[in-house]
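Researcher: Structure for this, please.
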Amino acid sequence: MNGNLKCNCKPMWLVVLLALALAQAGAQILTGDQVKKAAPNSFFFAGQSASVQLRNTAGLKNSAGRMVLAGLVDTSGYSTAIAEKYQGFLIAETKLSFDGATLDPGAYGFGFKDGKFIVMNVAGTDVFSIASQNDDRLKHPVPLELEKDGARYRLYAGRNYVVVKAD
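Model: Predicted structure, token format:
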């Protein structure tokens, strides 16, 4: 055996770094252009169709390429009972987890009311309700935003938020 054998292999740390970068690059918040291409113009909920506020719509793509969209809608045509808890829509191509509650892929309505995050099916029936959190440190709250939080995301409506994980 020759003691001068050279390995033409790439260093293992480069392979590990590349794998980590690819995994992180796969899960991402959608850009404004990506949201505009994917978001509907209106959303059917509780027997009516409401206009989607594209400026207040956000999305994410998980590492498998499955998308989740969340947006606010114009609820002016809805009854007070519905409009007080229905503020927006969720469209998910993957299972979502919210603080112990899970949501199968599909289309849903949601709202933040009295310290709760309420998710409803398109008929307006509650699917689940969990406590929302308030972020007093948020300097410039906006009507709706998704923000990456490690392997999870925060869905904000103003200063109120819930933590969501897309499987």
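Researcher: Any notable elements?
Model: The mean pLDDT is 88. The radius of gyration is 20 Å.
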